[in-house]
Amino acid sequence: MYRDNERYKTFSRRTIILFGGKVVLFSGLIGRMYYLQVIEGEKYKTLSDENRISLKLISPKRGRILDRSGRPMAINQKNYRVMLVPENTKDIEFSLRKLGKIIPINAHDLARVKREIKRRRRFLPIMLRENMAWNDIAQIEVNTPELPGIVVDVGETRFYPDGAKVASVLGYVSGLSEADLTGDPLLEMPGFKIGKAGMERVHDIALRGKSGTTQVEVNAFGRQIRELERQEGEAGAEVWLTLDIELQKFLAQRLGNEAASVVVMDVHTGEVLALASTPSFDPNAFNRGLSRSEWDVLVSNPRSPLNNKAISGQYAPGSTFKMVVALAALEKGIVTPSTKHFCSGDLKLGDSTFHCWKKSGHGSMGMISAITQSCDVYFYEIAKRTGIDRISAMARRLGLGQILNIEIPGERKGLMPTRAWKKKAKRVSWQQGETLLAGIGQGFILATPLQLAVMTSRLVNGGKAVLPHLTRNVVPSTEEPKPPVIPEFLALDIKSSHLDLMKKAMVAVPNSPYGTAYKSRIKEPGFQYGGKTGTVQVRRISKAEREVGVKKNKDLRWEERDHALFVGYAPIEAPRYAVSIVVEHGGGGSSVAAPIAKDILLEVQRRDPSKAKSSGDATIGHPSSSSKLMKIG
Amino acid sequence: MAVSPFEQSDMSFGQRLWQINWFFVLLVSLTASVGFVMLYSAANGNLNPWASRQIVRFVVGVFLMLLVAVIDIHVWLRYAYAIYTVSLVLLVAVELNGSVGMGAQRWVDLGVFTIQPSELMKISIILLLARYFYASQLESVSRVSHLLVPLLLMAAPAFLVLRQPDLGTTILMVATGVVLMFLAGVRIWVFVVGAFAGIAAVIPLWQFVLRDYQKARLLTFISPEKDPLGAGYHIIQSKIALGSGGVFGKGLLQGTQSHLSFLPEKHTDFIFTMLAEELGLVGGLGLLGLYLLLLIYCFAISLRCRSHFGRLIGMGVSTSFFLNVFVNIAMVMGVVPVVGMPLPLVSYGGTAMLTTMFSFGLLLCVYVHRDVQIGPGAVEGN
Fold first, then answer.
1. Least confident span in A81-90, A335-344, A367-376
2. Which residues does B351 contact at the CB level (< 8 Å), separation at least 6?
3. Which of the residues A319, A374, A392, A627 is marked catalytic?
4. What is the pTM of this model?
5. B231 falls within a domain
6. Which of B132, B190, B240 is the best mutation test for A, with the most CBs of A within 10 A?
7. Left (φ > 0), alpha (ψ -120 to 50) or beta: where does B345 sit?
8. Cis ω on the peptide bond leading into residue A575 (within 30° of 0)?
9. A276-307 pLDDT tens trace
C-alpha cells in the first residue's frame, strides 16, 4: 500500500484535533444556552412578559346629573357607531360605496377615512359615523354580509334629554384640548370627554369616576390576542342638583326666544330651583362636535346664547333697587315709614332736571306708596339725603356687588359704586346727580339676575344672609346617598320692622290697584305674591325728544328698547320662593316681566308638595327617598 | 468505452442496501422528527402549512439519501469534476439571469423546477477536494504550488455566491474547503499565512462586495441594543425568547414570543429559538445531543473508511453539517451575526433538506464502501 499509511496517520491525527475543536465549540453553545436560559432566565422571562402584555384603560361610566328629586338631566346614551376595519375587506372603495347606499357618506368624511387608513394599522377600526339612528344601524346590520369590513359598535355618549333647556346650568362635555392634559392617562384615551362648562365642569372629577384596567396579550404588531386580567373601574358619582327639572323646563318654555334670564331660589336654604338663560344652545351638539357654521351661528347671535345671562349678565337693576335705597335710609334713620314727599313729576338739582316716569307726578308719597307706584322723585329725594356710600353698603349686605359663588363658572360681580371707587376708577369726584340716579337703580349700578334673586330672598327670609347653591348632593357610585346638608346663614342685622315694611310694600305692587304689577296679580287665594317691577332705559332720552313725546318701546329698534325686570317672592304669608327676571330689551317691567313672574310663582307654588297637602316634608324631593324610585326606572 | 457505475464493485445492489448503516438513518429521522414537531407548533398546532410539507420533503430526501448511498463510490469519484463544473455553470447562470427572491439572487429556473446552485456547490466542493487530494501524495500536498488549483476552484464559486449575496453559504463553503485541506495534510504554516491574508482581504471585501444589509447585520451583531426596533430586533427578540424558556420551557405551543410573532422566521432560521423557548434548556440539549451523535457517526465512518477519497468525503460532509448547525445556533443565541442559515434537518425548507440528505447519502455511500480500496489510477479509464 503505497504510502497511504502515513497519509492516514496525518488524517487521523488531524481528524481527532478537529473533533476536539468541534466538541469545544458545541460546549460553547451549551454554555451560552445555560447562561441565557438559567442564569439570565428570569430577566428574559420578564422581558418576554413585557413584550406581550399591554395594560389598557377601561373608561369609566360618567356619573349622571339628576335634579332635586332624582330625575335625570344628564345621562349616558348608547352611541351607535359605524366603523371600518381595513384588513377585513379586500376592496375598501367597494365597501364604502355599498355603505353609501344605506347611509350618506360625504366627501369630507371619505377623505378623512382615507387619510386614517394610511396612518393606522390595518386591524384597528376607523370611525365612519357616530351617533347614528337605530334604523340606520339596523339596516347596516342586516346587510353586513354584503359590507365586508364594516362593523357596528356601541359606545356611550353624554346625552341631555332636555337639551337647551338645561344648558345654562349643566354646561356640556367635549373632547380635550392640549391644555386639558394633566398626565392622567385616562384623559389621553381616544374619544374621552370632559366637562367644559356648567355643572359638568364643576363636578368633572367626581363625575369621571376611576378608570379600570385590563391586561391584554398583544402580539408583535399590537393586535389584541386575549384578555388576561381585568380590574373594573369605578363609575362616576351621581350629582344631585337643587334644580327642579320640570320648573326649569317651564321657565325655558315661558321665556321662549326672548333674550332673558330667570333665577328661582329657596329664600331659606339658598337652593336654586331653576336658573334659565335664553336663548340657549343644545349641549348635545357640543358633545357631538359643532360644525364651523353651527358655531358661527351661535357666536353671531345678538342674543348671545352662549352667555349664561343669569350669572354673567350685568344690568342696571332699575326700580327693583328701590327697596335697597329705602332700607338704607330707614336703617340710618334718615326717613321713617311715615315720611312723606311730594312728587311733582320731576326734581331739580342745580341745572339738571330729574324726571319721574309719571310725567304728571304722583302727588304726596309715603314709603309704601312710593314703592307700590314706583315713584322716582321720592327715591331721588331719599337717595340724596342718604348718600351713595350708605346705599352701596346696604346693597352689599343684601348680596349685590359681589361674587356669590354659585359654583358654575362665569359669575360676574356687578357694581355697587362708592365715592372712593369713582375717585379711583374714573379719577373724578362723585356727583350728587349720580346719587339720584342710583336712587332709582340706574347710573353706575349693575347687578346680575342671580344677585337680584339673592337680594329678594334676603329681604323676605327673616333677615338671613342666604347664599345660593346648585349642588344638593354628590353621591359616589360606591356609597349610599346621604341627606343634603342645609347650610346655616348669618343674620343680616336689619330691623325686622323695616324688612316687614318692605314686604308690605312688595305685596302691594301686584295686589294694590295702584301697584305697577296689579294687572299681573294672582287671584287664587293662598297663591298671591309680592314683588317689584323695574324698567331700565338703555338709551339717553334727549330734552328735545322729551318735548315732542317719548317714543314707545315697540317703535324702537330691539337693541334700543328698555330692559324689563322683576323681582318677586311667594307665598306672601310664609315666603319660600324668590324669583328674579330680566328680559333684555323686553320693554316695561310691569308689562313684560311681571306677567312672567306671575306665571312662574304660580307654577312653583303649585309644584310645592307642602302647598298641595298642608302636611308633609318641608323639603321637596329628598334624594334618599327618591333614589330608589330612580333605580327601578 | 462507457463503464457501468457498478462495474468495479464486488457488491450487488441488495448487498449495498444491506450494508447501509440503518442506525444512522434512524438518527437522521429522529432529528428530522424534532423539526416536524416544532413546525407543528409553529403553525399553532397544525400540520399545515409547514409540518406536512416538511414530512413529504423528508421522505423524498430519505429516498435520495439511499439512492446516493447505493451508487458505487467510483461513480462519485469519476464524476466529481463534472458535477463541480455543472454547479459552477449554474452559479454563473444565476449571476446572469437569476430570479430575485428576498432581495437576493439565489435560484435558477430550469423550467421544470428551480434549484439553488449554491446548495449544489456545497456538495460539489466536497467532492472536488476529495477527488483532488485522494490522488495526492503527502509530499506534493506540502508544496504550495499544488494548492493553487484547488484554491482557485474554491475561490470562483465562493466569489459568485458572495455576489448573490449569500454570506452564510460563502463562509460555509470556504470553511469546509479549508478543513478538507487541513485534513489532506497541508502544512500548518500555510493556514497561518492564509489567516493573515484573509484578514487583509476583509477590508476590500467590506468596501466593495458586502451589501448594506450585510454590513448592518455585522454591525448590529456587535451592539444589537443600539437599534432595538431595526436591525437589532431579531437578535434581541430571539435572545428574549430563548432566555425566557428557562430550564423546562413554556411547553409546546405555549411559546409567547414565537406565537405572538415577536420572533421572526420562527419556522426557518429561528426554529431553534422556538424550540428552546417551548422546550427549554432540556429540549435544546436534547437536540444538540442528537446532532452530536450524528457528528460522532460521521467521524467514526470517516476514520473507519479505507479509501482516502471516502475519508475526505466523510469529513467534508461532517464539517459542512457541523458548521451549519453551529452557525445557526450561535446566530440565534447572539454569538455570531445573523447570516441567514437554516438549521439542518429541522428548519422548514426543501432545498436545504435535500442538500443535507444528499450529503448524508454520500456519507452512507462511504460507509457502504468502507472496505473498498480506491487506487490512484481508479479513474484513469476516463
1. A81-90
2. B115, B116, B119
3. A319
4. 0.64
5. yes
6. B240
7. left
8. no
9. 998 999 998 887 777 788 888 888 888 888 89
Interface size, chain A vs chain B, as Cβ–Cβ contacts under 8 Å: 132
Same domain, A405 and A353: yes
Residues near A206 by beta carbon (within 8 Å), at least 6 away in sequence: A63, A236, A237, A239, A474, A476
Which residue in the set A10, A44, A217 is minimally distant from B243, CB to CB?
Answer: A44
Residue A1 has pLDDT above 70, yes or no: no
As for how many domains chain B has, the answer is 1
Q: Are residues A171 and A287 in the same domain?
A: no
Percent of chain B with pLDDT over 90: 48
Q: What residue type is assigned to position A490 of the chain?
A: L
Question: Contacts of residue A123 in chain B, CB cutoff 8 Å?
Answer: none
Residues A275 and A166 in one domain: no
**pLDDT, tens digit (0-9, with 9 covering 90-100), for B1-15:** 344 433 455 678 888
Q: Give B22→chain A minimum CA distance, Å.
A: 23
**Chain B contact set for A23 (CB, 8 A):** 292
CA-based nearest distance A213→chain B, Å: 22
Q: Do B303 and A36 touch (CB under 8 A)?
A: no
Asked if A45's CB is within 8 angstroms of B247's CB, the reply is no
Cβ separation B240–A48 shorter than 8 A = yes
Mind listing the pLDDT tens digit for each residue in A428-454?
999 999 999 999 999 999 999 999 999
Three-class SS state of A251: helix
Q: Which of residues B203 and B105 earns the better pLDDT score?
A: B203
Predicted ipTM? 0.89
Contacts of A29 (CB under 8 A, 6+ apart): B288, B326, B329, B330, B333, B335
Task: Determine the number of helices (DSSP H) and then strands (DSSP E) in chain A.
Answer: 24, 20
Looking up cell 359681589 gives A402
Active-site residue A319, yes or no?
A: yes
Nearest CA in chain B to A48: B240
CA atoms within 13 A on the CB side of A522: 25
List chain A residues with CB under 8 Å of B330: 28-29, 32
Instruction: Look at residue B313 and tell me if it is in a domain.
Output: yes
Nearest Cα neighbor of B338 from B253, B243, B246, B230 is B230
Report chain B residues whose CB lies below 8 A from the CB of A29: 288, 326, 329-330, 333, 335
Of B260, B291, B303, the CB nearest to A217: B260
pLDDT score of B381: 40
Over the stretch A99-144, which tens digit does the pLDDT of each residue have? Answer: 888 888 877 778 878 877 776 666 667 778 777 888 888 888 888 8
pLDDT at A618 over 60: no
Spatial separation of the C-alpha atoms in residues B78 and A367, rounded to whole Å? 138
Residue numbers of the domain that contains A112: 56-241
Q: How many C-beta atoms lie closer than 10 Å to residue B121's C-beta?
A: 27
For B135-194, the pLDDT digits (tens) are 887 778 878 888 899 999 999 999 888 877 777 888 899 999 999 999 988 888 888 998
Question: Pick from B239, B262, B326: which is nearest to A29 by CB?
Answer: B326
**Percentage above 70 pLDDT, chain A:** 93
Measured between alpha carbons, how far is A192 from B200 in angstroms, rounded to an integer?
Answer: 63
- Cell numbers that stand for B13 in this block: 445492489
CB B146 within 8 A of CB B190: no
CB contact under 8 A, B260 and A47: no
Range of the domain at B357: 13-368
Mutate to test the interface with A, among B244, B265, B270 (most CBs of A within 10 A): B244
What's the pLDDT at A139? 85
Q: Are residues A100 and A66 in the same domain?
A: yes
In a domain, B1, yes or no: no
Which chain A residue shows the shortest CA-CA distance from B289?
Answer: A26
Q: Could you tell me which chain B residue has the CA closest to the CA of A49?
A: B256
Assigned C-alpha cell, B38: 416544532
